[in-house]
């Protein structure tokens, strides 16, 4: 007599969907990391301010870096004043309340910073903030 086996096959763990999800997460983190690294120019040392506030970041804000020699850097690309004006005008035409954060090097002359402020004004951008850092605890504050 022949008996049939009524046993069900063992449940197996499928790896293909798991690998797909892991790769999607990896791609997501790599893409977001690449956008975050353009945010700040490492060669720029912003001035220290005791009364600075922690920024309330807004989506889509533009960070303009001004090096000590007056070079303007936007998204890790060195651009001229005319190129910055063109980009800011195009952005301001679409977004009326566009936020711009100006990261000027502490060694940059006042003239370089004012040029970028003038460019923002010409482009119609009024929402401009200055980036600062917290003073070091080791350096005492100047009194008077």
Describe the protein in words:
This protein has helices spanning 15-37, 81-94, 110-123, and strands at 62-66, 72-74, 77-79, 99-104, 127-130. By secondary structure, it is α/β, with parallel strands linked by helices. The protein has one domain (41-144): Nucleotidyltransferase, domain 5. Strands 3-2-1-4-5 form a 5-stranded mixed β-sheet. Helix 2 (81-94) runs parallel beside helix 3 (110-123). The radius of gyration is 26 Å and the shape is elongated.
Radius of gyration: 26 Å
Number of discrete helical segments: 3
- Written as H for each helix and E for each strand, in order along the chain, the element string is HEEEHEHE
Largest beta-sheet details? 5 strands, mixed
What's the CATH architecture name? 2-Layer Sandwich
Which structural class is indicated by helix and strand composition? alpha/beta
Count the domains.
1
Fraction of residues in H or I helices: 25-40%
Spans of at least 5 consecutive residues with low confidence? 137-144
């Amino acid at each position: 007599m022949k008996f049939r086996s009524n046993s069900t096959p063992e449940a197996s763990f499928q790896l293909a969907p798991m690998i797909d999800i892991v790769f999607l997460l990896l791609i997501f983190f790599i893409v977001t990391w690449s956008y975050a690294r353009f945010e700040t120019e490492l060669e720029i040392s912003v001035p220290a301010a005791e009364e600075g506030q922690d920024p309330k970041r807004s989506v889509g804000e533009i960070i303009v870096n001004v090096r000590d020699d007056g070079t303007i850097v936007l998204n890790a690309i060195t651009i001229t004043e005319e190129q910055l004006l063109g980009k800011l005008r195009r952005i301001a035409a679409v977004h009326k309340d566009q936020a711009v954060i100006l990261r000027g090097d502490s060694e940059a002359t006042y003239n370089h910073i004012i040029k970028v402020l003038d460019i923002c004004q010409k482009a119609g951008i009024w929402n401009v903030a200055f980036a600062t850092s917290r003073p070091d605890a080791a350096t005492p504050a100047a009194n008077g």
